[in-house]
Design a protein that fits this description.
DNA-binding; NreC/VraR/RcsB-like_REC; 11 helices; transcription; about 220 residues; transcription regulation; phosphoprotein; alpha/beta; 6-stranded parallel sheet; about 55% helix
Length: about 220
């Protein structure tokens, strides 16, 4: 069972998320909060596997709340998915740098939410299409002035197939799209991506994209 904490200042949003999570009986809502300041005290009393975090809230916003979670809870113990209607590059980057494992839009379908949770709980990362585009847009607009030689060394350990998958991931494609382009199964794509993340030390796909750009692997 995956224990989940919902954090959003709107009652109807929290109720809607609860309803969507009922699609999967393995997902259990351990609580819901309306204020970012309540999150860390709650987790001290009631540990959860995943926090679904709104960005815009009273008290402190979702980015700061995520940062405070990370000060006490490592990402492999308590995962965080940020939910918002805004897919702006500064918000995406701030959330990821604060330690979020994923970034999804509130306009997603119930199936997309469950799929994102499953991906993150399984050790991956989840980014909505718009969030991925925002992240990639920021990277291409502001490329690193110098290639990170250490990251480039890590990427040299990848097989040609793994490297191809990384470049396609960095271009914003999902597993199904990459699978069609490479004429392999989505499972094979995911396997290559996971192996690449392990080899370069990326905690999720978002960080894999960031590392790829810093190593000079532009799509």
């Amino acid at each position: 069972m995956t224990r989940i904490l919902i954090v959003d200042d709107q009652d109807e949003i929290r109720a809607g998320i609860r309803a969507m999570l009922r699609l999967d009986p393995s997902l259990v809502v351990a609580g819901d909060l309306s204020d970012g300041l309540q999150v860390v005290p709650f987790l001290r009393e009631y540990p959860v596997d995943l926090v679904l975090m709104d960005i815009r809230m009273p008290g402190i916003d979702g980015v700061e709340a995520t940062r405070r979670i990370r000060a006490e809870h490592p990402p492999e113990k308590t995962r965080v998915i940020v939910l918002t209607t805004f897919d702006q590059d500064d918000i995406v980057l701030a959330a990821l740098r604060a330690g979020a494992n994923g970034f999804l839009s509130k306009t997603m379908s119930p199936a997309e939410l469950v799929a994102g949770i499953t991906e993150v709980v399984g050790g991956g990362g989840a980014l909505s299409a718009a969030a991925t585009a925002a992240l990639i847009g920021h990277m291409t607009d502001s490329p690193p002035p110098l290639i990170d030689k250490e990251l480039l060394r890590r990427f040299s350990a990848l097989t040609p197939r793994e490297r191809d998958v990384v470049v396609l991931v960095a271009s914003g494609l999902g597993n199904d799209e990459i699978a069609a382009q490479m004429s392999v199964s989505p499972f094979t794509v995911k396997t290559h991506a996971v192996r690449a993340m392990t080899k370069v030390g990326a905690r999720d796909r978002a960080q894999l994209v960031s590392f790829a750009f810093r190593a000079g692997l532009y799509p």
